[in-house]
Design brief:
With about 190 residues, this protein is α/β, with parallel strands linked by helices. It is built from 5 helices and 7 strands; from the N terminus they run ααββαβαββαββ. The strands form 2 sheets. Strands 4, 5, 6 and 7 form a 4-stranded mixed beta sheet that branches. Strands 1-2-3 form a 3-stranded mixed beta sheet, with helices on one face. The protein is globular.
């Protein structure tokens, strides 16, 4: 018969370990700065951070927001209701947020729009001059499709890239209109 011995730690050692773990956790948690302007700047960064980490956020969604003091207004369009729900929950969980005004639109289900999304993606991101935008996990050109109407959202490096993305989007058959809301990165 074998005897098993368990390592027992005393209450003081246990308390020290718990304190160290809590301290490490607290250092990783972002703490809002004092002062209204500093807080709004911090909150803008935190909201953006939370939104880009959403698991279902894709190139076919557009999320935007406005910060006013400790209140956040969520804007944009998403293809799945879960993305909208996750965005609201994530922003509500940020320390100091007192109100979240949800104005995110869930786009209607449409097999035709789904086909057009894929076609628009291929038309834009397969263009050799725009392929570098297809690198990474968070693609900068978002393609929003609603009832056959395309809206391009996001940020590109130059006016030429913006114009080329709009031209490529217009080459897809069965699209009723293309609105190019791409922004050119300042200083590019």
């Amino acid at each position: 018969m074998t005897t098993r011995r368990f390592l027992s730690i005393g209450p003081i050692v246990f308390l020290v370990l718990v304190t160290m773990a809590a301290s490490a956790f607290a250092q990783n948690k972002a703490v809002p700065p004092r002062g209204i302007q500093n807080y709004e700047q911090w909150l803008n960064k935190e909201v953006r951070h939370e939104l880009v980490l959403l698991p279902w956020y894709s190139v076919f969604d557009n999320l935007a927001y406005k910060v006013n003091g400790s209140e956040v207004t969520l804007l944009g369009q998403v293809t799945m209701p879960v993305t909208k729900d996750d965005a609201v929950k994530a922003v509500k969980s940020i320390e100091g947020v007192t109100k979240v005004d949800d104005k995110i639109e869930v786009l209607p289900l449409s097999p035709m729009d789904d086909q057009l999304r894929r076609a628009e993606f291929r038309a834009i991101y397969s263009e050799p001059a725009l392929q570098h935008y297809g690198m990474g996990t968070l693609l900068p050109i978002h393609i929003i499709l609603k009832n056959g109407h395309v809206t391009l959202e996001g940020v590109v490096n130059s006016q030429g890239d913006k114009d080329l993305a709009g031209l490529r989007a217009n080459t897809v058959s069965n699209v009723f209109s293309v609105t190019n809301n791409l922004q050119v990165r300042p200083g590019s």
